[in-house]
Amino acid sequence: MKNAFEKLGFFIQNNRFSVLLIAFLFIIISTQGAQLIEMKSGTETFVGKDSPLYQDYDHLYQNIFQTQSIVIMVEGNEVKSADLMKAVDRLEHQLQATDGVIETTSPASLIKQVNYQMIGRYTLPETDKEIKAIIDENPAIFGQIIPDNTHMLISVVMAGSATDRVQEDILTATEDAVSFADFPPSYNIIVTGDPAFMVSMNYEMNSSMGVLLGLSAVFMVIVLLLVFRHVRWSLLPLPVVLLGIVYTFGAMGYLKIPMSMVSMSAFPILIGVGIDYAIQFHNRLEEELQEKGNKTKAVIETIKHTGPAVLIALAMTALGFFSLFTSTVPMIQDFGQLLMIGILMCYFSSIFVGVATISLFDEYSERNPLKKVVNKIKPSNSEKKQKSEEESQSNRLIGRILQKTTNTTLKYDVLVLGIACILCFGGFYLDQSVPIETDVQTFVPQDMPSLVDLKHMGDIMGGSDELNLIIKVKDTANPDVLKWIDRFSEHEVASNGHIYSATSIVPLVKEKNGGVIPDTSQEIENIYSQIPEAQKNRYMYGKNMLLLNFNIGNAVSDIKLVGIEELTNIVKQDIQWMPAPPGTTVTITGNSVVFMEVLTALTTGRVAMTFLGLILVLAGLLVVYRDWVKALVPVIPMFIVIGWSGGVMNYLNIDYTPMTATLGALILGVGSEYAILMMERYFEEKDKGKSPIEAIRTASSKIGSAILASGATTVFGFMALLVSPFPMISDFGMVTVIDIVLALLATFVVFPPLMISLDTWRDRRKGLRTAEKGTEIQKQTQGAEI
């Protein structure tokens, strides 16, 4: 491997300008690709499209029956007003001409329908008294859209499969139509609904992305000035890693990886992880330039030795991240793809652009005609020496502290390992009681105006969560089927406290037939012909499919997905107890039901994901080292940290979300590097003839400050997540920062006694085997002599 990297070093040094030109061209290409990135926050980001639950939802409900509604809520002292209804009528006329709008429903249009039935004129009455009389005399018609004298709802209906772009266009058209409708000044108009909330959330995600990246850059400047000041151009690793982020954005667009609430947090993480690669190359190249003076040789040596070492660390990180692909939650899979692509891009940026740039900077600094002037300003050799001594004293102080820590852990090795294991398994136990949150409304900033409006509408109108029952029949006009729907609906509403109402084609049929269902199919067909197509299509598809909706209020917030799952099972049992007519099948679906799969993915799925990551990292280390001790020792401390992490989440009352479910894989991917670096130095010192205890002490004191600096860069990268306006991301950032600190703690506290114990035990076993083998040979020799 080193021979290949040595050749790569020759190539980079001899083609520095070409390398940088190609890097610049890739920036242009990546910028074009970044424009192709789509923002996604819907159901498809939570549930895989190959899931049977999602396919039922998508094929049977979303593409056939589901509609989405932008809701215009009107607030005022008295909404049963003729002037207000005229403004609503003007609004509807504008919206009905908008592309993508299926229909609009408002008190004004319903009043005109009632007026037409009464006097044969499809117009609005002129006086407040007439308006009020029509509304008050028809509570069944107006009860849902005029809940009281001060509130009114107008619904702008679009297809359930409408794209994010179409939803945004209709929302903009609705807001424009509200301003042109000339509502009376005493009324407050609020445009809300799920589409408005989703559009607003996508915008908030997009704008907060820039803030997160900016803060990551600021934090990186701080940490580089603190821990990397001993080299020239100490801030250079930051633009190098940001270049890798630019390339990642481009790849994201070309590979059609959507931007979601989870994937947007990948970039601060990549800055924290990827900058370590740039620092490693930068630090080694500066060291080689000072020692050898020969630029070509310095570049070749840097790439020859650092390239493979960093690549191995990257491979172990990638194996930890690879387990994210096993999740059934699409946004977690996208998160894994971004992390895998991102660390590769940061590596390529570091090895090509970083090394070439430093080499050119060094060459330019020697040719700079102002160098003599600058040298006069520069500190003298004695000042440099003093500064160097201060820095080395600082490093020695850290080294002494770490060495004392190692001595203490070795002295009380059984106690240290015992406490670590007890806390680990205690954390795994507490982890089982950590709740799971999948309500999208809790993931976003709670002061986001669209969320405030949506909650305000829910307080007035009640929740809009539903269970949707797709009923496949031989004939939609079969009276037995309609009578069963009627009986079953009444039973479920009466017997289940969380089912508040039921809607289907049945009430429309009964309304046209004096409150009863006809006894013959022909009579039902005649009634169907009288029902407007827009109303009929909401509950009936062709001749073989009907829809029954159960309103379950704010179930996602109130009883969570666990409660919805229990409620769904109760409905299924009731269907068995009160079976539908022969030849009829009932499928329970809907957004709430589909999200139950997310619950399973975040419970059993995240555990499987974590243990797969452990197995992959262990297998990767076995392949690299071909030594079970070297493979096992870096993994055990990270396993312990994963257990600690469960305890931390329980203590901080942080729920599992699609983001925090990835913590196990992240700890493995990021934290295993620290233990690997410690182990490498331990065996290096041991190969020099030192005893195991001397070797681990030297490793802790010599490489400890470097590991702390590397950990600091990672922690600072993750810290940007803490200030995210999205609670899901800020909680994730908090737990991750704590976990990285715990990973460093495990490296300096748990790793040394574990390393010594396993390595000494193995050496003792080898010694015993050698002694036994020697005794056996001696006996065989004596036997031969006799």
Automatic annotation (TrEMBL):
Domain named SSD: residues: 243-360, 592-757
Name recorded for this polypeptide: RND family transporter
Lineage: Archaea, Methanobacteriati, Methanobacteriota, Stenosarchaea group, Methanomicrobia
Membrane topology per record: Multi-pass membrane protein
Location relative to the cell: Membrane
GO biological process, one term: protein transport
A GO cellular component annotation in the UniProt record: plasma membrane
Organism per entry: Methanosarcina flavescens
Transmembrane segments: 209-228, 235-255, 261-279, 309-332, 338-361, 410-430, 607-625, 632-652, 664-683, 703-726, 732-756
Keywords on record: Cell membrane, Membrane, Protein transport, Translocation, Transmembrane, Transmembrane helix, Transport
Any matching Pfam family: MMPL
